[in-house]
Amino acid sequence: MTANDLTQMGIAAKKAAQELAQMDTTSKNNILLKLADDLEAGTTHIMAANVADMNHAAVDPKFIDRLRLTPERIADMAAGMRQVATLPDPTAVTDRGWRNEAGLQIDQRRVPLGVVGMIYEARPNVTVDAAALCLKSGNAVILRGGREALASNERLAHVLRKSLEKQGVNPDAIQLIADPSHALAEQFMHLQALDVLIPRGGANLIQRVVKTATVPVIETGAGNCHIYVDQSADLQMAIDIVVNAKVQRPSVCNSAEKLLIHESVAADYLPKIAAALRSHGVELRGDEASRKIVSDIIPATAKDWDTEYNDLIMAIKVVPDLNSAIAHINAHNTKHSEAIVTNDYAAAQTFQNLVDAACVYVNASTRFTDGFEFGFGAEIGISTQKLHARGPMGLNALTTIKYVINGNGQVRK
Amino acid sequence: MTANDLTQMGIAAKKAAQELAQMDTTSKNNILLKLADDLEAGTTHIMAANVADMNHAAVDPKFIDRLRLTPERIADMAAGMRQVATLPDPTAVTDRGWRNEAGLQIDQRRVPLGVVGMIYEARPNVTVDAAALCLKSGNAVILRGGREALASNERLAHVLRKSLEKQGVNPDAIQLIADPSHALAEQFMHLQALDVLIPRGGANLIQRVVKTATVPVIETGAGNCHIYVDQSADLQMAIDIVVNAKVQRPSVCNSAEKLLIHESVAADYLPKIAAALRSHGVELRGDEASRKIVSDIIPATAKDWDTEYNDLIMAIKVVPDLNSAIAHINAHNTKHSEAIVTNDYAAAQTFQNLVDAACVYVNASTRFTDGFEFGFGAEIGISTQKLHARGPMGLNALTTIKYVINGNGQVRK
């Protein structure tokens, strides 16, 4: 595949996007339902492609698990598509309208972004999820998945495109870059046809996209989340929240990586929280003060405070007060999700006001930062930037606005 | 000034931003009123600095006019600040709130972006405007104006910072990069402390920022706007709108650069529209078909269709139908403002649905794309991108959201 092929994909995507943008909601929903059926009907072929990918893949079991498809997982992807069909159409909305002083009627409509680029790792489910969410929101999508999942993604894209064609829909609404070279990925990051590029994956991928791309990017996913246990915290609640945020699914971005604890309760609380974490196999690292309380905590290095482990590891710091906790968080967090456990009204308010993050929790686990848990019914990623979308992104994050202005001959004085 | 000094400015700005974000609306308004008074009190010194800048400046009269300050213009800038004080505080808002299935109360609050970077040309008024809008929205601002206005900007920033200090407010809420080197400008585009960088100025400046910056950018201002005169258009309305959009203020981004006209009315309408434009000194360029109707129109080259003249020049194209007009616009526009003049209901609808631009007008001049004309009471720029803000940006464009979540011990199942 050449750079010119990529440009052609962009042109084709723009054309498909304009067609999708004019489609009514019922049509889009019916397309999604048919795509789901055809996806399930293609299970045998999809499985065969996935087996081929698996035979070439590295042996890291976490990696393998993300790459693996099963008939059940394919059925789940189809169910996800049917679920997207039931969600409200984010582009069927006029946000607001008003008449200006010159008598113009100005309406602020929600419209699709146009062409969405997705760049992600070896997770074939992202291929189907992104296709469904983009189609529902009236966007064409160009997908560039990890090389290890290439055969699976090619087959998935083939099934979806065939289904669109059969339905009389422009198949270029869903396109896959079937060349996994880095050179082409870089060209993708400069592709003018893209209205937005969304990277999904590890910190390395995201940073490469942010540094390279000249098209607008929505940064997602890096999560160095903290739980701060205040002096007024209920101990059992603190244990429950810290353990849940750390161990319930340690590989994801909304799990907690750091524990901060107020020095006045550290001697009492820390041994109990540490024991609870260790009973779930968590490796503990910590500062000097925490190691004075629980002596076999591994010394944390400066690097630990900025590291997202995505693993059963947690670093602990004893802080003298609320403001120190906030200052530490603002200096080291990724602006994703932060939590305080407290019974102090003023401390809760101060924490929520001063911590700079997409989601700031009082007395709850950071694991709730998720499009489904928030009630959005879908998720295209979790934005860690402040522009356009912040926090869990549902269908609405795939739209922009258009001012539609109706006059009767107005000119500017 | 060194890269390290710039990093220190970023750190100072972050600190100031956190203080501003906690300030109540009345305090911010009172600060703005005092800033306006002190600005007027500094008129003599500001004028002296501006005279120094003028003595060094190039001779292009358009350029000189933008650089020039007068006591009246300083009074206008002060009046603008007082006007900003009367606007609603965009961060005093909770957009919405709900309880999720786990019983968490999730509130979506409006919060300041944090640190705003502005990079602009030799227009000292942008220094004051941006400072006022950022302060009102709770953001710290780092300003980097054109080198030709350096003395003026230094004096303006000095007056504003002194005033803040006198009022007991952290003066680092308003900082100016007093070194106009390109090397430092480039470092500014990578400054991690920036939550957003907004370039204001010509297409070259904006493209340089978009290509260089690794911090989030909001593209502003490039405007290659079209007026399409449909076959059903009222001739007099078409003349009024085309003339207004072209000549009322040709140097700005929302003025029209291109005229498209339906072939079935071209022979009748074009000579009259051309005569009206020429009576205002407009140079006409055009395609073959237009030159067959008005023979002394200068031949347009391919480059004309993509050029923003910012001058009394207009290029004309005769199109066979509405769809050709829309296709031409979508291929050449800058996604800014486009207009149709028509009395045909279906044509109006199709044009507004299919043209990809921030503002799509029926029967009105594109010159209305403006924060004040829209009723926003202020304008920090006009976004031509689809992310975060699109079209005229008022105070709200300088905010983001924060999810503030209150629970009573919820953990994820």
From TrEMBL, chains A, B:
Subcellular location: Cytoplasm
InterPro entries from the UniProt entry: Ald_DH/histidinol_DH (IPR016161), Ald_DH_C (IPR016163), Ald_DH_N (IPR016162), Aldehyde_DH_dom (IPR015590), G-glutamylP_reductase_CS (IPR020593), Glu-5-SA_DH (IPR012134), GPR_dom (IPR000965)
S-adenosyl-L-methionine in keyword set: no
Pathway: Amino-acid biosynthesis; L-proline biosynthesis; L-glutamate 5-semialdehyde from L-glutamate: step 2/2
Chief localisation class: cytoplasm
Matches recorded under PROSITE patterns: PROA (PS01223)
Keyword Chloroplast: no
Pfam families: Aldedh
Keywords assigned: Amino-acid biosynthesis, Cytoplasm, NADP, Oxidoreductase, Proline biosynthesis
Example GO molecular function: glutamate-5-semialdehyde dehydrogenase activity
E.C. number: 1.2.1.41
Domain of life where this protein originates: Bacteria
Gene3D superfamilies registered for this protein in UniProt: Aldehyde Dehydrogenase, Chain A, domain 1 (3.40.605.10), Aldehyde Dehydrogenase, Chain A, domain 2 (3.40.309.10)
Catalysed reactions, semicolon-separated: L-glutamate 5-semialdehyde + phosphate + NADP(+) = L-glutamyl 5-phosphate + NADPH + H(+)
Domain Aldehyde dehydrogenase: start-end pairs: 2-282
Database matches in HAMAP family: ProA
NCBIfam families for this protein: PRK00197.1 (NF001221), proA (TIGR00407)
Homology family: Belongs to the gamma-glutamyl phosphate reductase family.
Function summary: Catalyzes the NADPH-dependent reduction of L-glutamate 5-phosphate into L-glutamate 5-semialdehyde and phosphate. The product spontaneously undergoes cyclization to form 1-pyrroline-5-carboxylate.
Annotated protein name in UniProt: Gamma-glutamyl phosphate reductase
Provenance organism: Lacticaseibacillus pabuli
Annotated gene: proA
